[in-house]
Amino acid sequence: xxxxxxxxxxxxxxxxxxxxxxxxxxxxxxxxxxxxxxxxxxxxxxxxxxxxxxxxxxxxxxxxxxxxxxxxxxxxxxxxxxxxxxxxxxxxxxxxxxxxxxxxxxxxxxxxxxxxxxxxxxxxxxxxxxxxxxxxxxxxxxxxxxxxxxxxxxxxxxxxxxxxxxxxxxxxxxxxxxxxxxxxxxxxxxxxxxxxxxxxxxxxxxxxxxxxxxxxxxxxxxxxxxxxxxxxxxxxxxxxxxxxxxxxxxxxxxxxxxxxxxxxxxxxxxxxxxxxxxxxxxxxxxxxxxxxxxxxxxxxxxxxxxxxxxxxxxxxxxxxxxxxxxxxxxxxxxxxxxxxxxxxxxxxxxxxxxxxxxxxxxxxxxxxxxxxxxxxxxxxxxxxxxxxxxxxxxxxxxxxxxxxxxxxxxxxxxxxxxxxxxxxxxxxxxxxxxxxxxxxxxxxxxxxxxxxxxx
Length: 455
Known about the structure:
With 455 residues, the chain is of the alpha+beta class. It has 13 helices and 21 strands. Strands 5, 6, 7, 8, 9, 10, 11, 14 and 15 form a nine-stranded antiparallel β-sheet that branches. A five-stranded mixed β-sheet has the order 17-18-19-21-20, sandwiched between helices. The two termini are 37 Å apart. The model is unreliable at 1-6 (pLDDT under 50).
C-alpha cells in the first residue's frame, strides 16, 4: 500500500503523506498480531511517530495509528500552528460549512454485504482485562428522520461476532437521545460508522455541541471547504466520501449487551454496563483501505483528540459569559477530560470564580480548574505549576465544592458525585509590589532564538 497515492485534500492519506515526508511515519513490515501486539506498539510510540502496520496477522488490510498524538500534530493535520488551533475550532463551531453530496467516492470501491467484522477488519484487542476487540477510531454518523438534524460522534464499538457489535454510549450521549426518539416512533436508528477520516472530521466528532448542531458542518469549516459526502448503499445517510471504511447499519435499544471492564481515558478500567447492539448490513471500503485505530486508555492520542475539542468549546462558553479568556487548555495530564487550565487577560476580581462555575455548568466531567494570567501558557504544565507555586494562596484562592454530580467515567466518584476544586493562580494586586519576571531583554532573546534556528 502506498500512502503517497494521489487523493483529494479531504483524505487522511494526505496527512499520512506529509508525516512520511517529514520522517514522522514509521512503517512496520514485520507481521504483527492484532491481539495485544498492536497495542504494545502504540504504547511504546505514544509520544512519538505515527505508525503503519503493513502485515497484520490473518488480515489483508493495513492498520494505522498514533496519528494525532500531540497538540502540534493535531494542528498540523489541519494545516495550522498550535497557537492558531483553538481559535480556528471556535470559528468552525460558530460558522460551519454544510457538506455537499457527490456521486461517488473511494470509500465505496468495495462492498461486502452482511459482513463478518472480525474477518473483514483487523480490529485490535487492546488490553487483557477487556473482553474483546474494539473499533476505537470510528466516527458514528446518524440523522433524526423527523427533524433532519445530524450528529457525528465517537463511541467504543465492540465486535460481538458476525455483523453485530455493541455501541458503548452513555444515556446522555446525543446518539442515545436520537436512538430513544427513533425507538419512541417504533424505529431503529440508522447509523454509519466511518473509519480512517481526515483530521478535520476526527476533531469535529469530538466537539461538545448542542443537540441538533451537526459536527460535520464544523468539519467543513476546519477544512476550509464543504466536506464531500456520498450516499450510503443500504441506509439513508451520507458519509465522508474520502474516508477509508464505512459500516452501515441500525442501532437497536431493545437489544442490549452487558459489558464488563473497559479501559478509560484515565488509564484504568471501568465497568461499562449495558450498551445497545448495532447490526451492520453492509461494509464498503477503498480497495487498499487503511484501518485506523486509536489506542484507548491514558494515551495522548485518545486524551488530546477529546481535550483539544473540549477546550475550544469551553473557550466559546467563557466568551459567551463575558469572561476575558485568552486560551483554555484540557491537556493529557488531566486525562483530556478532568482538568482544565484557563488563562485570563486583564480580569477583574471575581472573574476567576465566574469562569470556574461556567465551566462546571457546561461539562460534567470537568473536576479541577486552574485559572492563570495571560503571561502563563495554559498548555505548559511547568508554567502552570510555577503560577500555582508563586501566585496562589490556598486560604484565599482554593475553592472546593463537594457533592457535585459527575459522569460515569469519573475514576473516584461516590454515588455519582465528586468534589470539584478550583485554584485561582492569578496575580493579586496586594500580594507583591512588583510582578516582573527576571528575564534577559526581549530583543536579545529574539536574536538568540533566530540564531538557534540556524544552527
